[in-house]
Task: inverse folding
């Protein structure tokens, strides 16, 4: 089996895995994490293939590349964490619903509640002038 076929097949798995995660209701953040993990697996497979094919020294690769990348990664994670809010008060959809104007359906439901309450109390309805006085 060709290394290109194997690595390409794993990378293409990003799409169905992302679809399944979103279908199950996971956050898009999990899609990103799944993609990072798949790319990490592909990178490991490529390094192992190069080792078997060319006798590539994995230990020196880890020391020279991976170990040096850890401090940079930590600084980037700390910076990105400081930019984002630590607590989210409400999900975005709830904020949109609160800021939106009441829909016709909501107004109709409110009016039906008022009518039902009047029927229970059996009082005359309030006159509505709508801002116009005669």
Result:
């Amino acid at each position: 089996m060709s290394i290109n076929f194997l690595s390409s097949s794993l990378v293409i798995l990003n799409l169905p895995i992302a679809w399944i995660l979103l279908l199950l209701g996971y956050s898009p953040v999990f899609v990103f994490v799944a993609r990072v993990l798949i790319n990490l697996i592909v990178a490991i497979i490529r390094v192992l293939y190069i080792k078997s094919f060319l006798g590539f020294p994995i230990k020196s690769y880890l020391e020279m590349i991976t170990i040096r990348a850890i401090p940079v990664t930590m600084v980037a994670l700390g910076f990105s964490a400081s930019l984002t809010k630590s607590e989210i008060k409400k999900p975005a959809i709830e904020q949109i619903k609160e800021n939106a104007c009441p829909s016709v359906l909501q107004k109709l439901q409110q009016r039906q509640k008022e009518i039902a309450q009047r029927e229970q109390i059996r009082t005359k309805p309030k006159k509505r002038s709508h801002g116009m006085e005669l």
